[in-house]
Amino acid sequence: MNDLSYQDLTRGISRNLAPLRTHNADVMQGFGALSKAAMAPGVLDEKTKELIAMAIGVANRCDGCLGFHAKALVRLGATPEEFREMLGVAVYMGGGPSLMYAANAQAAYDEFSNAAA
C-alpha cells in the first residue's frame, strides 16, 4: 500500500523550491519559460503533452513528477481510461521498474481525482 500523499508531496516541493526562486531566480525563470513553451497547445494539445510528461515521469521514477502531472491531468479532464492507456505505454517502454511507478502514478491520479470530486 502506498502511504504517500501526492497532494502533500507537491505542496512540500513547491514550498522547498522557494529558496531557489529567490537565490536562483534566473534558473527558475528559465525553467518556467521552458515549461510554458513546451506545454503550450500546438499540434498536440495540453492534455496530450501532460500524458507524455506523466509517462516520462513514470519511466524516470520521479514521485514529484507523478504528483504535478496527475494534478494537471485531472484539471485537464483526462479520463481514467486515457490515464490507464498511457500507463500501459509507459510500462512497455520502461519495463518492471516503470510498472512499479505506474502503480504510484495511478495512486496520484486517484488522489487528485477524488479531491476534485
Automatic annotation (TrEMBL):
SUPFAM superfamilies: AhpD-like. Residues 26-105 form the Carboxymuconolactone decarboxylase-like domain. Pfam families: CMD. Signal peptide: none annotated. Coiled coil: none annotated. It comes from the Bacteria. PANTHER family: ALKYL HYDROPEROXIDE REDUCTASE AHPD, BLR3452 PROTEIN. This is Carboxymuconolactone decarboxylase family protein. It comes from Pseudoxanthomonas kaohsiungensis.
